[in-house]
Amino acid sequence: MANQLILAPPIAFLVFLLVGAVIDRVGVAIADERSGDGAFRRAYACGEDLVGTRTQPRYKLYHVGIGFTIIHMAVLLIATMPTSGADGTAALGVTLLGVVGLSLFALLKAGLEP
């Protein structure tokens, strides 16, 4: 009975929320010293002090990350589909894979353009 209770979604959410809060508090306690506004006192990058202005990040491979996310979600959906096949799930799965293929093709074409 206790196993079923702790696996209930609201209880499991609260447990994970508590674990996350504890990890956050421990992280704040062991983190680098910060100034009064919460920002770090000096820049840190692999032990080097950064000189100059802040750099703007470039997202050159952002489309690759989105592509992996789409692939993983498609695999999750296909893997959890019923295997009976009597109610048209095979056609739905093939359609899903086709849409995923088209979206990956569009991402690839968008990533190659400057």
Structure overview:
This protein is an all-alpha fold and 114 residues long. It folds into two domains: 1-55, no CATH class; 57-114. The chain is built from four helices and no strands. The longest helix has 24 residues, at 89-112. The mean pLDDT is 77.
Question: How do the strands and helices of this protein lay out in sequence?
Answer:
Blueprint (H helix, E strand, L loop, with lengths): L1 H5 L2 H22 L31 H18 L9 H24 L2
Helix pairs in contact: 3-4
Order of helices and strands: HHHH
Number of helices: 4
- Give the helix proportion (percent range): 55-70%
β content, as a range? under 5%
Low-confidence stretches: none
If you compute it from the alpha carbons, what radius of gyration comes out, rounded to the nearest whole angstrom? 23 Å
- Can you summarize the main beta sheet? none
Q: How far apart are the first and last residues' alpha carbons, in Å?
A: 59 Å
Name the features:
mainly alpha, 2 domains
Care to give the gist of this entry?
By secondary structure, this protein is mostly helical.
